[in-house]
């Protein structure tokens, strides 16, 4: 009888071990991937389709492709210091924005296809599914989106309404439109641009002007039916103008009362349809300090359906002191079972960058 029970116990333990290994097969080991000293990350995006984290960095200037399933990073040298990056919906290509240039990159072949001139500093950049890139200027006041045909290299300014310098945009998951948020304007707003013909053309902005905070950045739900805004506002999206950019709730950074906190913003956010969760990095505004905002060293987790706050996760494992750590980007994989957080940490007069797998 004892032998029988022991056999069952051993088999059960073996099965648990196998299942545990199987669960972790396609993800990185939890922990920290410390980047080389002096490396600084300037922008990052993640492809759920390919399960790759693409980030651009300086010292040296390069595009990096982290493949979590292999726990390995491929590096592509760049000719200029990168400011921004955008990857295609299928995860096969990327564009990198610089001061007065952009590079079109084949992520599968791991090489730069070509480098083109653009007449602005690329604060933000969007890669369309149509072999066009859309560059958002860093400087000046009323500006246009700089639209580049990646096949010919021709640059054309967007049509219709202008944008304000510092605006940021993202391609809607359907691929036909961009949504753009204002920065450096009060009140901030969100607008829609048509990119089906290549050159971006303005369509309309939201019906709200200060009713709900926008604050200058945005992230889509995986199905493209909602947009989550830096100012904690959620809006429904639609091809029907009357139903487009309609208020749909608030992501309450006041986690006690589950309501808006006027002294907080969302720095980075990602949606997991598989887990029905929102993962975000909150920042706190402090006008008496320099800089005037600081990012909290936690990932806040929300129910994606009803926007209820659930819990927070420390951005670095196995440490009791998070005070020197600043998170910058958060991403969740397609299965919803692993987070990637890009962090920087002060160490004396140095800043060490890392990717945290949680």
Notable characteristics:
5-stranded antiparallel beta sheet; 358 residues; disordered N terminus; 7-stranded antiparallel beta sheet; mainly beta; 49% strand; 6% helix; 1 helix
Description of the structure:
The protein is mainly beta. The chain contains 1 helix and 30 strands. Strands 6-7-8-9-10-12-13 form a 7-stranded antiparallel β-sheet, with no helix packed on it. Strands 23, 24, 25, 26 and 27 form a 5-stranded antiparallel β-sheet that branches. It has a 4-stranded antiparallel β-sheet with strand order 1-30-29-28, with no helix packed on it. Strand 3 and strand 4 form a beta hairpin. The chain is globular. The model is unreliable at 1-23 (pLDDT under 50).
Strand arrangement within the widest β-sheet reads 6-7-8-9-10-12-13
How many β-strand stretches?
A: 30
Quickly count the helices.
Answer: 1
Measured distance between first and last alpha carbons: 43 Å
Judged by helices, strands and strand pairing, the structural class is mainly beta
- The general outline is globular
How would you name the oligomeric state of the polypeptide chains in this document? single chain
Strand percent estimate = over 45%
Helix content: under 10%
Q: What's the gyration radius in Å? A: 21 Å
Q: Tell me about the largest β-sheet.
A: 7 strands, antiparallel
Mean pLDDT: 91
Q: What are the segments in which pLDDT stays under 50 over at least 5 consecutive residues? A: 1-23
């Amino acid at each position: 009888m004892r032998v029988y029970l022991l056999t069952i116990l051993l088999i059960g333990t073996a099965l648990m071990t196998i299942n545990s290994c199987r669960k972790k097969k396609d993800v990185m080991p939890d922990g920290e991937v410390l980047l080389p000293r002096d490396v600084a990350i300037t922008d990052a995006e993640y492809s759920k389709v390919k399960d790759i984290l693409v980030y651009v960095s300086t010292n040296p200037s390069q595009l990096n492709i982290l493949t979590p399933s292999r726990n390995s990073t491929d590096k592509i040298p760049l000719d200029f210091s990168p400011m921004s990056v955008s990857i295609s919906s299928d995860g096969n290509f990327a564009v990198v924005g610089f001061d007065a240039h952009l590079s079109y990159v084949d992520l599968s072949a791991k090489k730069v296809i070509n480098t083109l001139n653009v007449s602005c500093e690329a604060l933000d950049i969007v890669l369309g599914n149509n072999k066009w890139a859309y560059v958002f200027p860093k400087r000046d006041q009323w500006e246009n989106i700089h639209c580049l045909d990646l096949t010919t290299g021709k640059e054309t300014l967007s049509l219709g309404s202008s944008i304000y310098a510092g605006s940021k945009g993202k391609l809607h998951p359907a691929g036909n439109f961009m949504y753009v948020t204002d920065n450096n304007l009060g009140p901030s707003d969100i607008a829609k641009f048509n990119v089906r013909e290549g050159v971006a053309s303005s369509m309309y902005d939201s019906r709200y002007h200060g009713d709900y905070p926008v604050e200058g950045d945005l992230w889509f739900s995986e199905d493209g039916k909602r947009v989550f805004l830096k100012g904690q506002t959620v809006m429904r999206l639609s091809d029907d103008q009357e139903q487009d950019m309609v208020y749909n709730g608030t992501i309450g950074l006041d986690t006690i009362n589950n309501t808006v906190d006027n002294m907080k913003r969302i720095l980075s956010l990602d949606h997991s349809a598989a887990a029905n969760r929102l993962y975000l990095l909150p920042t706190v505004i402090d006008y008496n300090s320099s800089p005037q905002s600081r990012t909290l060293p936690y990932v806040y987790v929300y129910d994606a359906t009803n926007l209820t706050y659930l819990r927070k996760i420390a951005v670095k494992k196995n440490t009791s002191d998070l005070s020197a750590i600043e998170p910058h980007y958060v991403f969740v994989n397609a299965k919803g079972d692993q987070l990637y957080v890009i962090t920087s940490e002060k160490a004396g007069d140095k800043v060490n960058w890392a990717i945290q797998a949680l």
